[in-house]
Amino acid sequence: MALQGTLKDFTLADIFQLIGLQKKTGVLTLRNGQEVVTVSFLDGNVVTADSVPKRLEDRLGVVLVKSRQIGEGQLQEALKIQKQTLKRLGTVLVGQKFISQDALREALRIQVSQTIYRLFRWRDGDYHFSQDQKLDYDRENVSPLSAESILMEGARILDEWPMIEKRIGSFSGVFRKIRPTERAASSTGAKSGPVLSAEEKTVMQTVDGMRTIQDLVDSSPLSEFDTCRVLYELSSRQLVEKIPSGEGPVLEKGTAVKVAAGQEVRRVGMPAVWRWSLGALVAASLATAARNPLNGLAIASGSDPHEMFLMRQVTLTRMERIRYALQVYFVQHRGFPKDLNYLVLGGLIRSSDLRDPWGQDYLYRPMAGGFELEGKDRSGISGSPLVLRSVTGTR
Question: Which of 31, 192, 249, 278 could form a disulfide with 209 if both were Cys (CB 3.0 to 4.6 A apart)?
Fold first, then answer.
């Protein structure tokens, strides 16, 4: 299968979908500027993902040290043995009993996933897929990832990332903890702290006012996206705040979270009009109390024309998520469902995914060899580009 071109003409989701549906074996190479990423597929499933200049094994060693699963001395010893034996770093670490095999498998899964999910934020680049029947990967420690599961997670990232990225900004930024205010937990005057999930505790422990966001990502057992998502949520709850540029790490008691509308931050390939609209939308959502910021899009007024543009982009992204789920359903059942609720029952999407940001249900019509998915704008009017038509195996 000859497959090459640019991501402007053929999206990453389309590429993964095609390779997955046709169960191809080979290597997909993507290039964006100086960064080159290679993704290996075995029968349509992902088995490795590597990048230049940040190689998988280099990242693996750094992450294991920063997450305190191994010490710096153990890493250096393993690298010395690796140089002598030419074995994979993970194999050496397990052989020396520095980590367990289960820990290695999980670390490799996270590193491969992070490499791939970052690709979904690329807006430009070249790609080339070459078929190869012989792939060199760690069969003992790598569990293949299905293209369908990657597409589902990719759709979630595309939907939620713009709001998250606007808040956290550049990965060179630094967050610090906000000192907790005194809360009366009982009549005795005891103090109570915020209730944190396991993920929030993991990220909160690494926030020290000195580490950059990239440092937090590198040392986190969570994926890059989930680390940033949790940091976003902690910021929304006013448990952490970003240190303004030029300000030191000194923390004043009771400091409030400040996010300026239209504040300049380094973007990762986001269009300028999104940057402007997101600034206004985030400022508006912060003014509304007691609400989950990630759900802010669903209850925004939609009166501003720039906000309307953003909402239309969100509804298109959610329609793409449904389309991916329909393709996964087709692979599993060799046919499309009678209605979209079958996707929810199958665990492919959430029931909330069946409604647009204005709370309207998407219209789904199965057809011979395909389907039609239709969305509406805030006024309830449908039409291009809010209509997706697809036939088996194509867009």
Answer: 249
